[in-house]
């Protein structure tokens, strides 16, 4: 989001505050190097190792600047603050077997897939889709009187992310079990807006011809 905003509004000062010392710590440390370099290229200010004191007292006031205080004592004055801290469940995730059935033997006919399931995989769309397919096939197997034998296998985390309006990156952590030590990094500047998201709509039978058509 920070890269897109800077390209859309190059005269604006964009600041990204991140609580960890490195960006996206789930991934190999090289992703921090790549993203930091891209942010510097665009002129986005990066502040790491501190958190925002949230919410600011005047966040909802449209007629004044927002003063955002950080836990390191620093203060930022902004026109707009976009919180992007994510969420955590109050009581944890659902423990599942590799078949995605509940791990609790009292509930053999209940399945969990996606972000709610504690599979050991990253919380992302691609693993979620694979988990849904595994769970669906196992449900069908049980309906047909067969054992649910299909299993979900955790793969190294990866992502496809925008790093600008027309630039994007594919990043996959190394498969340590296979002896890999370096991540896969594929940089793209293919001239397509928004990662070519219109193809996802087309797969669902929706023809998108204007960016405003994305709005639901």
Automatic annotation (TrEMBL):
GO molecular function: electron-transferring-flavoprotein dehydrogenase activity; flavin adenine dinucleotide binding
FAD/NAD(P)-binding domain segment(s): 11-136
Pfam families per UniProt: Pyr_redox_2
Gene3D superfamilies given in the database record: 3.50.50.100
Signal peptide stretch: none
Listed GO CC annotations: cytoplasm
Domain of life: Eukaryota
Coiled coil: none
Protein name: FAD/NAD(P)-binding domain-containing protein
Species of provenance: Colletotrichum graminicola (strain M1.001 / M2 / FGSC 10212) (Maize anthracnose fungus)
């Amino acid at each position: 989001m920070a890269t897109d905003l800077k390209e859309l509004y190059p005269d604006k000062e964009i600041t990204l505050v991140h609580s960890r010392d490195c960006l996206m710590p789930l991934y190999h440390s090289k992703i921090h190097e790549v993203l930091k370099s891209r942010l510097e290229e665009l002129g986005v200010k990066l502040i790491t190792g501190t958190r925002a004191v949230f919410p600011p007292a005047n966040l909802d006031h449209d007629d004044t600047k927002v003063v955002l205080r950080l836990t390191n004592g620093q203060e930022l004055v902004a026109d707009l603050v976009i919180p992007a801290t994510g969420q955590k469940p109050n009581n944890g995730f659902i423990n599942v077997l590799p078949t995605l059935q509940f791990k609790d033997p009292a509930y053999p006919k209940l399945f969990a897939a996606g972000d709610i399931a504690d599979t050991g995989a990253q919380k992302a769309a691609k693993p979620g889709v694979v988990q849904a397919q595994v769970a669906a096939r196992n449900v069908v197997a049980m309906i047909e009187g067969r054992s649910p034998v299909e299993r979900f296998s955790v793969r190294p985390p990866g992502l496809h992310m925008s790093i600008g309006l027309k630039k994007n990156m594919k990043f996959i952590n190394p498969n340590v079990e296979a002896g890999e030590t370096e991540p896969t990094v594929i940089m793209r500047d293919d001239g397509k807006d928004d990662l070519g998201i219109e193809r996802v709509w087309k797969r669902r039978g929706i023809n998108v011809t204007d960016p405003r058509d994305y709005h639901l």
